Amino acid sequence: MSAERKNGADGAAAGRELKFRKMAGQLRAQIRSGAWIAGAKLPTEQELARLHGVSLTTVRRAMEDLAEEGLVVRRQGAGTFVAGQRPAVRGEGSVVGVIVPDTTLYYPKVLKGIEETLAAAGARLMLACAHYNPAEEEAALQRMLGSGVHGLLVVPTLIDSPDPAAVVRHLAGLPVPTVLIERGLDDHDDHADHVRTDHRAGGYSAVRHLAALGHTRLALLTRSENPTCEPVSRGFQAAASDLELTVVPPFSAPMRAWTPQIAEENVRRIAQEGATAAVCFGDKEAAFVVSAARRLGLAVPGDLAIVAYDDEIAEMAEIPLTAVSPPKRTLGRRAAELVLQRMREPDLPVHQIRLRPEIVVRQSCGAAQRETPS
Fold this sequence. Notes:
Blueprint: H1 3-33, H2 45-52, H3 56-69, E1 72-75, E2 79-82, E3 95-100, H4 107-120, E4 124-129, H5 134-147, E5 151-154, H6 164-172, E6 178-181, E7 193-197, H7 199-212, E8 217-223, H8 229-242, E9 246-247, E10 251-253, H9 260-272, E11 277-281, H10 283-295, E12 305-309, E13 322-325, H11 328-344, E14 352-355, E15 358-360
């Protein structure tokens, strides 16, 4: 290459270098001046290229510089955001917002796991209960973001949403790391971090446990209008098909419709149809079934074996219930660990974690009377 051509090439490279450094300097000045506040989403790379009259390569190199300095956070599938105050490496001084739909059943154990993990990292928890109300969830989100939380753990209400995917995209695009608990989409368009119980596997395990005890004709009784109902039902049906078991027509109703009378009608029906075992979601409905069987003169587990799902109050039923038990405390711990890791490593690949529930054997399934395979 001639000296003239070499000097020309060097000059072009220097020009490109100056362009991206100049652009990085302009953006850096805007961020530090408050033109873009902490948590604000920056224009897309295409928009910035058009606004500044530069190439996409120049924009990307400028953004890489700002990300290395900690001024911006690039989130896969969501965009680039102005970074907030960076927490210390292990989370000391950080605040994590936690939004749950209920603080009585199911979630207290999840919260215990979250609290333990955050406390060990020196982080604090800010809690809100949304009562399964999307408007309350959004209001709590905005309050927490406004207060400067460094991360969020959210149990969103998806089941009644006209567009669950839009809710998940909204949460994934928030300006702070956000991890969903017990919620997510079962498709390839889900780019949100989440930690969930594998409820389909739980339904499958319940059937397999009863089949191991010799039951070949089963019933499924569930509480509908709940996000756990559908995967439990799918797991139940898959196991029954794989193990070539007979399933009597299932029954499902909302919690408000589950009454002692409804339970009695269904116990009478499934007994007439020859079912010798039932999987009941959840614990309260299973307790109704036990009482109904007693009123009808059926022995539990002698005439009707029962496996409950949730393991919240199963041990307190008049006949302690064998139950599928989601790993609630571990769920909280793993979710808290993930949000803390995401706070330290914004470019971490999306994590979608499923935990398998276990079966806690008590009196209602008859395992004590029969040999159970190890």
